[in-house]
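PT: before anyone asks, these are the final sequences, not the draft ones from last week. 734 residues across everything. Please model them as a single complex and drop the result in this thread when it's through.
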Amino acid sequence: MDTDLSSQDRKDLDKFIKFFALKTVQVIVQARLGEKICTRSSSSPTGSDWFNLAIKDIPEVTHEAKKALAGQLPAVGRSMCVEISLKTSEGDSMELEIWCLEMNEKCDKEIKVSYTVYNRLSLLLKSLLAITRVTPAYRLSRKQGHEYVILYRIYFGEVQLSGLGEGFQTVRVGTVGTPVGTITLSCAYRINLAFMSTRAGEDNGAVYPSVEDSQEVCTTSFSTSPPSQCVFTVTKAHFQTPPPVVTDTLKVPVMGLAFSHQLSSSRLSYQPAALGVGSADMGYPVLFAGGLHAAHPHQLIGPGKEGGVPPIPSQPAHGTQADQERMCTPLDGVHYSAATPSSSEDTETVSNSSEGKCGSPHDLLETIFVRKVGAFVNKPINQVTMANLDIPFAMFAPKNVELEDNDPMVNPPDSPETESPLQGSLHSEGSSGSSTGNTHDDFVMIDFKPAFSKDDILPMDLGTFYREFQNPPQLSSLSIDIGAQSMAEDLDSLPEKLAVHEKNVKEFDAFVETLQ
Amino acid sequence: MNCRAEVLEVSVEGRQVEEAMLAVLHTVLLHRSTGKFHYKKEGTYSIGTVGTQDVDCDFIDFAYVRVSSEELDRALRKAVGEFKDALRGSGSDGMGQISLEFYQKKKSRWPFSDECIPWELWTIKVNVVNLANEQERQICREKVGEKLCEKIINIVEVMNRHEYLPKMPTQSEVDNVFDTSLKDVQPYLYKISYQITDSLGTSVTTTMRRLIKDTLAL
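LR: through. Structure below.
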């Protein structure tokens, strides 16, 4: 099969697929950052924009994607997947979508690689831009902030859809036939957005009503958040290790094939300055610095008519993209290469040093899990850790307390198992661990302490009075049994009473005359 | 050559007409626009870069991506604005349709004028509904947002069938295939027209032709 493809075409095709995969990841991740994306059109080709589309490269995302690919390309049975998940500040997490870039065996031998395939890949990227805005996760990601954050994970290999729950829906973004197979890009997204297992199986209908249901289930509300930034977190397994190791890739040999599992997801959320992390420490502007991809895209140069003139190799890279709108201070350690045609596909700018400049992921993640103790919660003040201690009505908090250790509202459930290397997934276990704790928090018993009442003045205080007043004994005449009994007696005694009254008619008449 | 025709239908409130139409038209044009061609010697050309930007709707729970070109946006807004005004006009039952047609020009010899051959036609049928209270409007915001998501998926599905597209032209013929009047992007030649259905059910055809620099008519 490949013998029909010239070596140059094969080389070009591999490069197109590789950079298409990288751009796909960028589009998906950037669409889940939670902010509006805007890039400029440029009438003059810059020589750096793959597929003639202005898609910025977040270096860390590219780095993660390359680590996941590990030099391989999507092929039959080897798909590149981007998993988008949601994680609340309480530690509950849920997979929202899986974007899959797959290859099947259906080949199109007649298609022109350097022209038609390239243009169709460009069209597919445009479709991806459009589709990433219509799945439910887009609206969720736009509202991420204090209550929840959106995470992404890239993996290569078999597609894992089990974390999406029952009744997930799929949307196909598009396909592009190539001489070595057909590239397919699709998205499977969850429609049941409930965290708790008790709600499993419900809400398999429309997508947006499910979002409303999840608001009822989650203890936090989805609110509009400030623009998100791309921040890296360290996994639970790495909490106790000092930064700045931001991401960790573990190669887990499975069935003789090596897969790269991203253990720590880059958390796409904004950390406001109130939590002690200023934007300067976030590293987000840093992420764009030196974001130029020096694996130079082809300057697509074709003939006047449809056909195949091999493209002319690309031009040397520049330090910044022409359409870069953010701060573009090159980082130390960012390498720029003057590309030559032979080396263009291998040299890259990888701002590895930027990973160390993403602030303090450990601190950031700790602050995410701060749990405010709400009013009337049956907790002593001094056992609330890392929380805001300004509890309303603190003087009315009861003195006998439960063990703090059992309260998931103070200690978010640890989920080291979910993020261990062998699990390879960030979902499911964390939520199940917290579910039992949360059921106890549905109802909180409190002592009724009316305002301004004190125990030591009267034997019966105001609260006792209220309770008794609101629960008085029932009137005997209103009792059904007594009423029924007296009614029967009355009816039986009625004739006798009438006879007695008839005898005393004269007395009654005299009484009436005295009144007149 | 047969013209590929796609029809989309939406029911919207009056104030949602503009945003809904722009969302659909921009999504179609995103797929039907390229970077500017720069022809070089020996019949080769390079292509500019198309930027994109997110647009949030004010009256619909919806967001879409459009090409970063203010000229293109202005042209679409002008057409949609006229359509919206016509819908509001007297005699209208709130029903109409707006069409986006992509065409090629075929040079004809004198004395015949150039022929415009459509190759793709997108028609959006609009039904304007009147709502009684704020609660209905809120529901409408969400429902129309969901419907537009479905329309975007439909559009993408059509686009990725990879059916007929005009051949890439030589420098002398580029104006027969692409609209080269914009300075930053280059959509395929297109025109927008609309029809309003009045209360009697007859259609009043109002065609608005987009100015093309070299359109001549005898």
